[in-house]
Write a structure and sequence with these properties.
alpha/beta; Diaminopimelate Epimerase, Chain A, domain 1; four-stranded mixed beta sheet; three-stranded antiparallel beta sheet; 7 strands; 55% helix; binds zinc ion
Length: 245
């Protein structure tokens, strides 16, 4: 009778053991392929795999993202419930590689993904987009605000706010127009003040001139005669007053 030790070292069992080890290793050997096929496909610039957005949101966001893309500030949004890497940044990196975004300097990706019942956000924006943050809002502050929204479960708000913020950074037409209006209003005001003052000076000048043309004795209008260089003669046709300047 064979001992247990002999049994485990017998050729047949060794072959079985080898096959078993191979079988165990199989998922790990093919892991990258398996995960890659589990990554979502690209639908458009908005990829809402979690059904977070409402009906009207899609077209509004797509329009804004198209306008941004026309300025070579491409942005794609992924909203997902499944991250095979359990790491939002890694997930975003792999997705943007699969979607061909990472090798285009004008393209960026924001990923909103649910990890263990907690929503996370990962940002990889193009240099054009990150460079458009001004002193008012920094890129860091923007990310923090979106992250805090996402982590408190307001995913739809976070998606809308991120697109709207980036859009507003490029298309501040409303506020620019308001500023222009304000400054042109100031210009008009200045124009009126200067014009009014000038008009007042002219009126005062005319009144004085008119007053000087009136006879100091009877008040009727005098006639100017013999106007020569540096001298003017006035006489009153009514009382005969005569004045020489
Ligand atoms: Zn007179």
């Amino acid at each position: 009778m064979r001992t247990v030790r002999e049994y485990f070292t017998s050729g047949r069992v060794r072959k079985l053991q080898f096959a078993f080890v191979l079988l165990m290793l199989f998922p790990f050997l093919f892991c990258p392929t398996v995960i890659a096929t589990r990554l979502p496909g690209k639908i458009g610039r908005i990829n809402d795999y979690a059904n977070v957005l409402r009906v009207g949101d899609h077209s509004e966001l797509e329009d804004k993202l198209t306008e941004l893309a026309n300025l070579e500030m491409g942005l794609t949004i992924l909203i997902s419930l499944n991250d095979p890497y359990n790491n939002p940044d890694r997930y975003g990196f792999e997705v943007s590689r699969k979607w061909g975004l990472s090798n285009d300097p004008n393209e960026g990706l924001i990923v909103f993904v649910k990890e263990d019942d907690c929503w996370k956000a990962s940002f990889s924006l193009s240099g054009q987009l990150t460079g458009s943050f001004s002193g008012e809002v920094s890129y860091g502050e923007f990310q923090n605000e979106i992250r805090s929204k996402v982590e408190s479960g307001e995913v739809r708000d976070a998606v809308l706010e991120s697109v709207n913020t980036l859009y507003a950074l490029q298309f501040r037409s409303g506020s620019t127009e308001a500023n222009n209006g304000e400054s042109s209003e100031k210009g008009y005001l200045l124009y009126f003040v200067v014009g009014g003052a000038l008009l007042l000076v002219i009126v005062v000048f005319l009144v004085i001139r008119e007053a000087r043309l009136h006879c100091p004795k009877c008040g009727s209008r005098m006639k100017v005669t013999g106007a020569g260089p540096g001298r003017r003669e006035k006489y009153c046709p009514r009382c005969g007053y005569y004045e020489r300047e």
